[in-house]
Amino acid sequence: PVVTGFLHLGGLRTALYNYIFAKNHQGTFILRVEDTDQNRVVPGAAEGIEDMLDWAGIPPDESPRRGGSFGPYQQSHRLDLYRRATHVLLERGAAYRCFCTPQRLQLLKKEALRSQQTPRYDNRCRHLTPTEVSEKLSQGLDWVVRFRLEKGVEPFRDLVYGWNKHEVADVEGDPVILKGDGFPTYHLANVVDDHYMGISHVLRGTEWLTSTSKHLLLYKAFGWDPPQFGHLPLLLNKDGGKLSKRQGDIFLERFARDGYLPEALLDIITNCGSGFAEKQMGRTLEELISQFEIGRITTHSALLDLEKLPEFNRIHLARHIENEGLRQKLIRELQLLVEHVYGDQQVDQEVLEKEYVERVLLLRKGHISLLKNLVSSDYSYLWVRPSVSREQLQTISGEVDEIGKLVLGLMTRQAAVLTVEELNKELRSLQKQTKETKYSSVMKLLRLALSGQQHGPSVAEMMVTLGPKEVCGRIRKALSS
Fold first, then answer.
1. Confidence (pLDDT) at 412
2. Are 400 and 393 in contact (CB under 8 A)?
3. pLDDT at 415
4. Which of 58, 33, 38 is nearest to 197 (CA)?
5. Distance between CA atoms of 480 and 387, rounded to whole angstroms?
6. Cα end-to-end distance, the chain, whole Å
7. In this structure, are residues 178 and 206 in contact, taking their beta carbons and an 8 Å threshold?
8. Handedness of CA 134, 136, 139, 141 (dihedral sign)
9. Which residues are catalytically annotated?
């Protein structure tokens, strides 16, 4: 990737397809940092990209951080290689020095736009004689190196788009391959690097499809065999517009910070695209690797509906909760969340005990999309034990002691194995054993005793989630206060 910013969903998808393709074929997934446009490099972006690939669970096998046999993996550290490659092309007559000033190039561009044509270089310096070149060099004039585009490009077979060719010489001027600052442009750098790093396959965004014929002309000029190319269709938002980078909406850091699981992101960005025999939610990374077929990637854009992300996360969060090892990590995270959100409300240490937190996770599995849902106001009753007096309960019903005894009896008898549905039935029959308290008043009284609140989840749901021990403790406390 280029390091002009931080990793977003489009970049993650390109990395993911490269990763699962490499793993599917027992290959090596390489991260090469393209930082040849020094004006646009954002400090820390290269490290940030690698951090986020690690977070997403798709770490590169070779990279600037990990190293490897074909380093360095950062283009700004390979300048000598590009200079030598440029010298070869100059010697062969496949490239030439261009002395046109930025002012002249600007005029060409203005002129083309005025006559409603696509701006292109007019190849003026292509025709300089060796004597004219020497003369300009002796005058100390600034120069860049341009590649001589030839007509008659050969078609190539793209892994996604099939047979393709673009007569670049008909629509473009000769492109710059080495700039005045000694840095290459992408066109030269990616060709030289792919050759010397022994790259077999390149999966990249469809915006590079029309440049591929140009790159193949460069391979031909060097006398090298090119890798195989596959161009991935665009990732767009659900109404077909470009994904918005404003406010950091699609950057991975935002999703990590909001508590989304990387598996949910990998799942949604492949689910909305193609490359698989069927659409399916809830794929794991192992399933993505084993089921991926590059021939199944279609050429139409992938439409991403981020409103569905919570549902994808719900599925993967449930899987994490079911897994003994992953669940321990969630327990620690939830304990920290509770302390952070409710720390100033005298959270009883007992509700932070591992067994209690684990019980909450297992009971709410499949009902929550994000772990932080469990510290929302709806669930505050789990973490903050209410201070409710007997007098408050008596304003709802005069049969406070009778209702309390009935609930304590129910809880000690069989509540440990009751579901929400079964408990609802038990509560209805329990109300019939009171003399004059209506069902709605019994529910109101229990809700107040258990949560100190007027609203929230159903009483049965609260009782099941709290568990018999906690329910009995809270009712006894309310009755005796």
1. 86
2. yes
3. 54
4. 33
5. 11
6. 64
7. no
8. negative
9. 245
pLDDT digits (tens, 9 = 90+) for 258-274: 999 999 999 999 999 89
Of 7, 4, 34, 31, nearest in space to 19 by CA: 31
Q: What is d(CA 17, CA 435) in angstroms, rounded to the nearest whole number?
A: 67
Q: Is the pLDDT of residue 300 over 70?
A: yes
Where does the pLDDT of residue 250 fall: very low under 50, low under 70, confident under 90, or very high at 90 and above? confident
Contacts by residues 331-338 (CB-CB < 8 Å, ≥ 24 positions apart)? 331/357, 331/358, 331/361, 333/371, 334/360, 334/361, 334/371, 334/374, 334/375, 337/371, 337/372, 337/374, 337/375, 338/375, 338/383
Q: What's the pLDDT at 367? A: 92
* pLDDT tens sequence across 417-461: 778 899 999 999 999 999 989 999 999 999 999 999 888 889 999
For tokens 């970049």, the residue is 11
**Strands 156-158 vs 162-164: parallel, antiparallel or unpaired:** antiparallel
Residue 366 CA to residue 356 CA, distance in Å, equals 18
Place of tokens 């793209």: 158
Pairing of strands 302-304, 235-237: parallel
pLDDT of residue 247: 53
Neighbours of 185 (CB within 10 A): 18
User: CB of 226 within 8 A of CB of 216?
Assistant: yes
Sequence-separated contacts (24+) of 304-307 with Cβ below 8 Å: 304/9, 304/235, 304/236, 304/237, 304/238, 304/243, 304/268, 304/269, 304/272, 305/237, 305/238, 305/272, 306/237, 306/238, 306/268, 307/238
Place of tokens 């990616």: 190
Distance CA 187, CA 203 (A): 16
Answer whether residue 244 shows pLDDT above 80: no
DSSP string, 182-204: SPBPHHHHHHHHHHHTT--EEEE
Structure tokens at 469: 């021990």
373-389 pLDDT per residue, tens = 999 988 999 999 998 99
